[in-house]
Design goal:
single chain, 357 residues, alpha+beta, Phosphorylase Kinase, domain 1, Aminoglycoside 3'-phosphotransferase, Chain: A, domain 2, 6-stranded antiparallel sheet, 38% helix
Amino acid sequence: MIGREDANITMVGTIPVPEDDTIDPRAVDRWMTGHTPGFAGPVALSKFKGGQSNPTYRVDTPSKSYVLRRQPFGKLLPSAHAVDREYRLIAGLHPTGFAVPAPFGLCQDPEVIGSMFYIMELVEGRNLWDGSLPGMAPEGRRDIYNAMVDTLAALHNTDYVAAGLGEYGKPGNYFERQVARWTKQYRASETEHMPDVEALIDWLPRTLPEQTRTSIVHGDYRIDNMIFAADEARVTAVLDWELSTLGDPLADFSYFLMNWVTQPEGRSGVMGLAGPETGIPTIEDMVVRYCKATKRDGVPQLDWYFAYNLFRLTGIVQGIKKRIVDGTASSAQAAKTAERVPGLASAAWGFAKRAGA
């Protein structure tokens, strides 16, 4: 994992587009000229450092800056890297007032730059990568966490039918679909036999919790997928909607709560750090605040949900590992991330045992 002291160096900001990245700024310029209202080139591209899923670029012009997000080049797993779904979600949410960038256009023709891509607003603000929020006063940390959980509750309270997203996900039990999906994705990118994953693949489908609510689910709701206002504890944009769908909001909320059972590693983990001294709310504080905002009586016992979330992360990181093997991983951090696969699988099975496996 990335150390706290160098997360901002390695993950925040942009770098020149690498020489082996074949994206053509002239092609971007031509497409935006015909599809983006108010656009005026020429275009200069740089690449955002963070993340290793869908490569993301800063598009600068003389008068305005944008963001371009595309699929990785090369062979892709089925249903992965669906930037067209991301764009549909953003385009539906933005008119509701929820904190997403404004959408400016989707290109589904892979001939333009070599893959599908979309253009959206560049939202300026703070990128926070370390959940411990070093250097911040206790009240500042509390306010940031309250803003995060309030924004998640607002997402789950959004009328997705009114937003034109009533068909954004399939009916039926969300966790049943997701366990099947990530099992399939894991199998498609499997590089070695792992007994913990095999045990999870057997146990999870037999112990699915009942789904009592349906909402938009972000799928990767964590601190580094948000932009915060420069001068206040307010989420100005939630990013990276690749895993979004309609589903059980407890999937998102339990994934957010994973931070409190994850060791501080310079990313989102805050295990052992919550309390008045730091200002980071306790997991119980977050449950109370979320339940009040979403009118819930409480949440179920969370060990099954933690096992599921870690299993899903195992599948995601295994996909990154496979892309390294295939030579298509898009971030310098991908190799470090891929090293986490056995640990994620072991932690997932640990929570499964706590849940009765």
